[in-house]
Amino acid sequence: MNKPKQNVQTPAMGPGREVMQRVYVVFVFIFAFAMAIIARAVYIQIFKGNELKNIALEREFEFFDTEAVRGNIYSSDGNLLATSIPVYEIRFDADPKLIDQKVFDDSVVYLAKGLSKIFGDKSYTEYQQLLVNSRINTKHFIKIQSNVTYDKLRLLRKLPIFCRGQFKGGLIALMKPKRVYPYDDLARRTIGFSRPSDSIFVGLEGYYNSYLEGKKGNELRQRMANAAWKPVYSELNYEPQDGKDIVTTIDSYLQDVAESTLQKHLIYHKADQGTVVLMEVNTGEIKAIANLQLDKKDGKYKEIYNMAVGWAFEPGSTFKLPSMMVAMEDGVMDRTKQVYTGNGSIKYGFLNITDVHQIGTSGWSTPLEIFAESSNVGVSKIIYDNYKSDPKSFINGLIEMHLTDSLGIDIPGEVHPEIGEPGGPGWSIGSLPSKSIGYELTITPLHLLTFYNAVANDGVMVRPKFVKEIREAGKTIQKFETESIASSICSNKTIALAQQYLEAVVEHGTAHEIWDSAYKIAGKTGTARIVENGDYVSKYNASFIGYFPADKPKYSCIVVINKPNGGQYYASKVAAPAFKEIANVVYAMELDIHPQQNSAFVNNLQASLPLLLKDTLLVKFGLNPDGVLLSNVIYSQIQTINDSIVLPKIPDVTGLGARNAVFLLESLGLKTEIIGRGYVVDQSIKAGTTYRAGEQVKLTLDFNTTTL
């Protein structure tokens, strides 16, 4: 009997086991996926990292500021004292997307030849190699040249490929303004400079930076593979706004005269440094300001520091004017008919004050004689005898004449005068007499000149002015009028007496050597000992401050020569002659300050001038080297020499300044090379030699063309 079949059943699978199997599958899948990602990441990092980084960088865009062209600084006679010229960094984008391969192949040789001809620094084959390599290696932003002028950029834009422009020819010109000073060191510290990134603001460049700097533009740039940024078009780009121009009060001719004269006298007297400031009396306009200091590294005098504004010194005898004016204002002079100066020596406690020479024969002198002969004993006695019981009233008198006021000028770095107070630090029995003759106090040359200028201006103290107006696109948008510090520094009686005293100094006093019958000069000499390490030493600064013509003042001027080491140190021998040379040239140039101009006067004036100032007169005033007035016809020919004069031979330019010599030679089609500074003492092609246009004449310059 057959047994029935029995179904053999395997153990049933529970639900938990099925879930776990699915989890394992998912885990394996995720693990494999993660490993694939890691492998890919490792692959990219090792094998594709740089390539992908470059691609990412190429896709970065950012907006950049673009610099505005800085405004110009002009002299009052229209010459450029500072300007910005655009220079360009030239780059080339050889991207095949911009430049068709056939265009590139057909034109690259001609482009390379053009680059070689324009720049002259590489052969055309070297340029061709550079261009081809940039194409092959897909370097889209290669540098071609730096500091390229606009004239050369214009030539570049005419070359094959480049003539197609930035987006079809790959020419990229990045403009970077460059500040230049056409007259080099002329008034350099007064013109100054500005570095906003370092918070440095010097001179007019610094004070008027907000006007000069303009407004920056905005430009979208794309970051290239070599980390350089390439400009790209964007509707959000906008152009920078150029800076405004400023017109200074400085006359470039008078500045040249002042600086050349100062340098000549510094050299002659082997002095350390010096300053000259020429101011227009009624307006306060600074027509010239020179500050020269010996650079001991190369032995040359340079504009290193603005002494006129930032150097406070003990002025010595030039401070006797304000001292005597306080006494005049207080009625002391009405009571003082004569002063006993004895043998020229007096003691105040431990202070011994002496005169260089005895005043008068009897030992008695009038205040006028004392001032004219610059008696230290006489001035100190007048002040001490009348103010010893109340020295504060003397100091207050100086303060009331605005000698301690800030000038508020537009040159950063003005140093405030320090006169001191009775009972203050360092005050002693000798302080009052010391201050009366210009010691134990400090003041800047410009501040002291401003005081003398007020005396010349019948008591009206005007603020020194350096800028006349601001211009935008050639149009005046702001004018600066003359500002008064004080409508009167003292009474009319005191002013009249002070003017008389200053004229006496030149007519028969310490500055008699600069007296001139052609026009009157009023002023005061000052020779002061210098303090080193807390003690007065046998070193001096020599100064002369005055104005001219004394009977109708037009200009005031100060000359300070510090530490002369040439044997002479008295102001009458060091500073006053420099003042006279400057005054002579200015007087000859200004027809409105003397009644008439004639050949005889000019000949006499020329005889008193050193050779190295004659060329300034020649150009400005129309004089030939002998001092004879030229006719209007001849003078106009000098000014238009290119059109009206043809010289087949080299002219003689020895004795002329660099500017005039270069003008004359280059107007004849010659090239010039300057060696040295000063006035022409030698020319490589001798006068009278025939020449061809384009030849170069080497001019050797020096200041030692004459002696004082």
Describe the model.
- The structure is a single chain.
- With 708 residues, the protein is α+β, with helices and mostly antiparallel strands.
- The chain folds into 4 domains: 29-59; 65-248, Alpha-Beta Complex (Penicillin-binding protein 2a (Domain 2)), CATH 3.90.1310.10; 253-595, DD-peptidase/beta-lactamase superfamily (Beta-lactamase, 3-Layer(aba) Sandwich); 609-702, Trypsin Inhibitor V, Chain A.
- Helices cover 36% and strands 22% of the residues.
- Strands 2, 3, 4, 5, 10, 19 and 20 form a 7-stranded mixed beta sheet that branches.
- Residues 5-10, 608-614 and 617-648 have low confidence and may be disordered.
Supply the number of structural domains. 4
C-alpha geometry: elongated
Q: Give me the secondary-structure category.
A: alpha+beta
The helix fraction, in percent, is: 25-40%
Instruction: List the total number of helices.
Output: 24
What is the CATH topology assignment of the largest domain?
Beta-lactamase
The H-level CATH homologous superfamily of the largest domain, spelled out, is: DD-peptidase/beta-lactamase superfamily
Taking Cα atoms only, what radius of gyration do you get, to the nearest Å? 38 Å
Number-wise, the strands total 27
